[in-house]
Amino acid sequence: MSTLPSTSTTGVRPLVAVVLATGNRDKVRELRPMLEGISPSLALYSLADLALSPDIEETESTLEGNARLKAAAVMELAGPMFEWLIVLADDTGLEVDALGGAPGVRSARFAPAPESASPSYEDNVRHLLHSMAGAAGRAARFRTVIALKGRLPSGNGGSHEIDETVEGRIDGTITPERHGAEGFGYDPVFLPDGSGKTFSEMSLPEKNSISHRGRAISKAIARIRHLMTVSGFPSISTGNRP
Ligand code: IMP
């Protein structure tokens, strides 16, 4: 496999490739400005940019396990392409106390469906409300885990392995009925603590400012900024660092 250039177009600065282990274009579009604002030495790639389409089965029983599994699988493919890189892989789940933490890692496939088909968001919400009928409490939380896996230069001319996770969470309750039309997934029935609106009644920026994913991304950005600075790469000061 050929190695992509590890220097910038000026030929002076080594580049760090940040590879998003997702095929979801919306996620890539949302993350690009945030990640590219970390350092002029950072270049962002999606799986599509690298013509990678790994078939990764999420077989672990925890969000951490699945995020690590995805990051490791993509690292194996993208690792030989770059000298310095960080792979980011995320996994998200809704955990409902009255259901013993379900749907959790099964959030995308909570409602019964044939093996070959995925339930729709609507199927999952209906199944959730049905499963919670008569429940004593409605407390729940969203958790997003992002795994960072990669390789950066160390001070002594060698390299430093990166293998860590960050987590963002938001606590709330499951409303007995749907409210709002924005968002996706379980948004119409998730009421964040301290808010009078479900996620589906919020604009995207409003949701992102408090959401599990927004919080996990802020932490991942802070870690990348720190790791790159320690490795000697210049960083862009934003004044509103995560
Ligand atoms: P993923 O790990 O990001 O693919 O998320 C797994 C599943 O969790 C999705 O299919 C959705 O059902 C649900 N989910 C993830 N993030 C959200 C969110 O922000 N709002 C509502 N549902 C979500």
End-to-end separation: 36 Å
Bound molecules: inosinic acid
Instruction: Tell me roughly what share of residues is in helical segments.
Output: 25-40%
Number of helices: 5
The count of DSSP E runs of length 2 or more, i.e. the number of strands, is 7
Order of helices and strands: EHEHEEHEEEHH
Q: Could you describe the 3D structure shown?
A:
This protein has 242 residues and is α/β, with parallel strands linked by helices. The protein has one domain (16-230): Maf protein (Alpha-Beta Complex). Helix content is 27%, strand content 24%. The protein contains five helices and seven strands, in the order E-H-E-H-E-E-H-E-E-E-H-H. The chain has helices at 25-36, 63-78, 121-131, 204-210, 212-230, and strands at 16-20, 42-46, 85-96, 103-104, 139-153, 159-174, 190-192. Strands 1, 2, 3, 4, 5, 6 and 7 form a seven-stranded mixed β-sheet that branches. Helix 4 (204-210) packs across helix 5 (212-230). The chain is globular, with a radius of gyration of 19 Å. The chain binds inosinic acid. Inosinic acid (IMP) is lined by residues 91-93, 107-108, 121, 124, 183-187, 199, 211, 213.
